[in-house]
Every structure is written in C-alpha cells, then in structure tokens.
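Reopening this one. Same input as before:
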Amino acid sequence: MAIAHLLNRFSSKLIWVSVLCVVASVVSANTGYGQIPEDAALAGIDLKNDWPWWRGPARDGKTSGSETVPTEFSETQKVIWKAPVPGRGHGSPIAIKSLVCVPTADEEQQIHSVVAYDRKSGKQVWKRDLSQGGFPARNHPKNTEASSTLASDGTLIFATFFHHKTIELFALSLEGQVVWKKIAGSFDPKIYEYGYAPSPILYQDLVIATAEYDGDSFITAFRRSDGKKVWSIARPKSISFSSPVIAPVANRPQLLISGQQFVTSYDPRNGKQLWSVLGTTFATCGTMVWDGQNVFASGGFPKAETIAIAGDGSKKILWRNNKKCYEQSMLAHDGHIYALTDNGIAYCWNGQSGEQKWEKRLKGPVSASPVLLGDRILWANEEGSFFVWKASPDHFELLAENQLGDESFASPAVAGGQLFLRIAKQEDGKRQEYLFCIGNR
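Same output, byte for byte:
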C-alpha cells in the first residue's frame, strides 16, 4: 500500500495499525503461540486450522491446537493417510481449507507443478503443470527444482519457480486454475550454481518474491489480485537463499532478511529500508526469527555465526556466537532460542543475553526447520529421524525419536491437530516421495 501523504491520513493509519497490533496481541494470548502479525487474518485464513505459508500462520513455526499431535509416530503408527508425491521437491506442505498442497518438479521432463490433496482422505484432487523446460544445467545435490514453499490467502495459491533464467510467480485458484503469472525477475547464477529456494510471502494485499545471486538480485512485491508490481528492492549481487519474513517487532511490521553480510529490515508496505546491521555471513538459507523486541539470524557460508539484534532500529547487537543453522531456521519461544545445527547439535540460548542453557548432541545433517507442538519441539534431520524434545531452558529432555522414510528435507506443517510431513524413501532402488498425515484418528 502507498503511504498517505497528508498528515491526517497518516495519523489515522497509525492509529489503525496500533489497534490491529493490540488485537493481535490479545489473540496471541488466547491461542498460546507466537504473536500473530497484524495482517495474518487474511480473508479465508483460519488461524487455528490452516497452515497457509512457510513456517505457519504467525510465520514463526508455532501453531495453536497442536497439543494433540502425537509425539510418537512411524510409517505404520498414527498415520491417518499416506499419498505418493510425483517428482521431487523440498517445498513444505501447506494446508488451506480442504486441501494440502505441495510444489514439485519432474526433473527428467523439466516440468514444474503444484499438486493438491484432499485433507481428509489424502486423495489427489488436482495436479497443475505450470512450466516446461529451461531448468538450470546444474544445481546443488541437496537442492531441488521445487524447494520454495507455496503460500495461500484462502482464495489464491502462490508459487515461485526457477526456469529459463527467470523466477516466475504464479497465482492459482483453489481449483488449480492459473489466474495470473508474472516474471518476478531474472535469475542466472554463475559463481554458485546451487539453484533457488526462497518462498513467497504475503502481506496485506501483496505477494512478495525474492531472488539473490551474482546478478540483479531483488525483493519485489506484486498485488495479489492481478500481479501488478507495487514496489521493488535491489539487493546486493551475491548468492544467498533465505526467505524473508514479516514480523511484528518494535511496534511495527518489519520485513527481515539475513545474508549478504548483513541483517536488514525493510518496511513491507513500500520496501523502504528501516535499518541494517553487519552480521552473519555472505550466504544464509534459514528464515529469521524474533522474540519480543529482538531478532535473530543464523548462517552460513563461508563462516558460521548466530546473532541477536535489537529490532528497534538502534542497531544494537545483543550477542553473537560461532554456531550456525545454515539451511534450517531456528525457533524463538518464551525468551529463548532453540537451534539444531547442521551437524545435529541442539542448543538453547537465552534470547536477551545469549547465555547457553544447554547443548545436546543428536544426529545430523539437518536441513528442515522445526515446529512447536504446544510445549514440544519437533525437528527432523536429513535421514528421516524426527526428534521431539521439551521446549524448556532448564534441561534437554528427549521425548521421542521417530523414523519416517529415508530422507527429510521439507519442514512440517501443523493444522487442525494434524501433522503433514513430506518425506522420501528408496523403493526397489528408486526414490519415491510421500506426503503423510499424522494424527489421532
């Protein structure tokens, strides 16, 4: 939205933003999970029963109504349904209304698609092929051609794919029809040909796409209804893979992104930079987290660093250490930061001071991000081991270790008391992906 130029309109807008923030805080207190962004109540989104985009309704890996999700599960235990996923992808599931949707790619035929499943039965409802050809000649072996998570406002589903040296943004109806499509920008990495990863994010009437490489890097906002470009940010010319996040910090919405050696905040309404602090490293993959007035980032390549910064624009660095969550995001909860590093070591740090509360060696490597299930943290490694532990700074308490398939790169989705997991396994010498719905019948 454009900023009002007249003082009375500007003051009125600030009053409404303040009111929305108060309402969001009240809702947060009643649901028992992360502070809901002022814009999260988009038309058609059920904050308790949908998981509409990357990292869930509050964009922080937390959800309400998750206390009933089973702690222990397997390929035969607590499975409500299991559905094969065609192709290959690391994009996480989203749950919107009666559907569970994932992006995927047929790498042999070079076809990008979105697949929708019935949320109750797991039956495939539709599959929409969106582009063919133009896949990059090379990609990182851990990446796929469908690693971006979808986003939905309850009416449209948004997808981003990398092909023909561009990032293309699609808007689909819930019935799988293409409503509009736009070229978000060019994308043609030369230095590190490691593919594409950032997920689209929604804010007010915008859908925002990101791409960072050794070329014309950008964050660009389009109008959700028709794809009209609203604003665009030029980012530094260096490869990075993080999805930005929009968080309510310091009494205002902030679009936060790490990488390019900085942690940076923008105004999501118009793309104007709010502040930037030297921190992390050149390349990061995880999405930033926040807790109260502070923001946290971790990465990456070529060095390792986790950093805490005051989100009020003072540029104050609260603490930093040399641990890293490169591909995965962290979890901020009740004044503490939980991390599971690339090599599988779990940490808990005090969010304000950085004091280490505990560490525990589990097992890596790790690429997926966590979710909070009530007072439990669920976090998977790349080999399909799903660790569940208590979200407590007092000590580490492992509640369960579950095995599902042979490979887990996509992050979980939690909606309506059910857990949706995208995994892969080897069957007769071939890799096959599956979507699992885990819950109590």
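So the earlier flakiness isn't reproducible anymore. For the record, DSSP finds one helix and 32 strands in the chain.
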